[in-house]
Amino acid sequence: MSNAATVSTNPISHDFASRTYPLKVFAGKNALEALPNELKNLGVNRALIVCGRSVHDRSPLTQRIGALLGERLVAVFADLSEGAPSHRIEDAAKLGLEVQADAIIAVGAGSVLKGARVVAMLMGEGRPLVDMATTHVDGHAPVTKKLLAPKVPIFNVLTSPTSAQNRGGSAVRHEGEVHHLEFFDPKTRPAAIFWDSAALATAPVSLVRSTSFETYWWALMCMGAVKNSNPLVQASRYQAWKLAKSAYPRLHDVTDDAARIELCAASLLQNRDEEDGGRPLSCHILTRAAYAVAVAMFNRHPGITQSHGYAAMAPAVIRRMGHLCPEVTADIASALGVNVHSDDPQLPEHVATVVQAHFDALGWSSPLRNASIPVDQAPTLMKFALKNFNANHDSKLNEHTMLIQAAIEDAIAQG
């Protein structure tokens, strides 16, 4: 059942914990030249590249890395497809064990980078993926499995900006009743990431705009919860939005190397936000609901990216749920340069219209138009959304199921 009461807004908190993980970032022209030395410093002699088919077949990137590494590169697994399907993860881990790989070089964007982490987990743990995944039992809090075995180091070479670049958690697509599996292992955070200008230029504009929209969307939505964040989180959120707002419209210019690197930086700041105690994936109820449903759509319906889900669900969730957190809703509009009052009875409708028009202007009009999702899928999408650990680790979404399902139906109808 939904709860019509306003979700409380707390004053700014100075009670927080911040963590800093070791990480090297190499950016700009010829950034990849640093990769051989980084492998040498960690004693790596048998590296495995994990990537998608298009990166391997349609760009010179894996060949370039091979030339840089020489005998240190022992194999390439080029079949990690969108969503990082669990059977592909198993195939990559099997190859890694066969060639005795002592490091993984992930080359790509979100699906590849998060998939490579699970490949490392599987290689290290040596047990079925389902046994390693977070478990969800109705009426109980999700349980994250502890994965204690050592893991090989990971090096991430980005072809597009993504917040997947330096996380310790992952979700992979899975067939059957459980549509995705979730994992967490801080030992799979990368040793180094590379924002190489030429590597980033290998991705077509259409792909970069799609993957970068996730960074843009998160930056905008988190502006709804920036005022009450701790000082470190505030710094990351303000700067991530500044970078994303400036760089995203410039992605059409294939000669603008800086735009892609700035979006990589914005994505990294979003992860730093989390490490500084910000919990961006659940920073307010609107973000939680839209994110959880977008992930469910992505995993349940082929052809839908998470960006499609984000673009469709944000206006729908604001329209249906904006009254629960009027200050958050008003601050999202303010980030887009629109002044509204939090006590306006038409606030949710007004801000939803503003956000929809803004996404339309960015090229995200009717993002579900070609998906053909039947409206009777709304309850199923709701069920899987509630099992999203990042969005619903404390079961807060369960209090608003009627409103969320109505938002799903609205988004499907709009598409």
CATH top level label of the largest domain: Mainly Alpha
| SS content category | alpha/beta
CATH homologous superfamily annotation of the largest domain? Dehydroquinate synthase-like - alpha domain
CATH architecture of the largest domain: Up-down Bundle
How far the N terminus sits from the C terminus, by CA atoms, comes to 26 Å
Tell me the number of structural domains: 2
Could you spell the SSE succession in H and E letters? EHEHHEHEHHEEEEHHHHHHHHHHH
Note the total helix count. Answer: 17
Number of strands: 8
Unreliable stretches (pLDDT < 50, length at least 5) are none
Task: Work out the strand percent.
Answer: 5-15%
The pLDDT mean sits at 93
Largest sheet: 6 strands, parallel
Quaternary state reads single chain
Kindly summarize this structure in a few lines.
The chain is an alpha/beta fold and 415 residues long.
Q: What keyword list fits this structure?
A:
alpha/beta; two-stranded antiparallel ribbon; Rossmann fold; Dehydroquinate synthase-like, alpha domain; 17 helices; single chain; 10% strand; 6-stranded parallel sheet; 415 residues
Question: Layout of SSEs?
Answer:
Blueprint: E1 24-28, H1 35-41, E2 47-51, H2 53-58, H3 61-69, E3 73-77, H4 86-98, E4 103-108, H5 110-125, H6 129-132, E5 154-158, E6 169-173, E7 180-184, E8 192-196, H7 197-201, H8 205-222, H9 231-247, H10 257-275, H11 285-300, H12 306-321, H13 326-335, H14 347-361, H15 378-385, H16 389-392, H17 401-414
Parallel strand pairs: 1-8, 2-3, 2-4, 4-5, 5-8
Antiparallel strand pairs: 6-7
Helix pairs in contact: 4-5, 8-9, 8-10, 8-12, 9-10, 11-12, 11-15, 12-14, 12-17, 13-14, 15-17
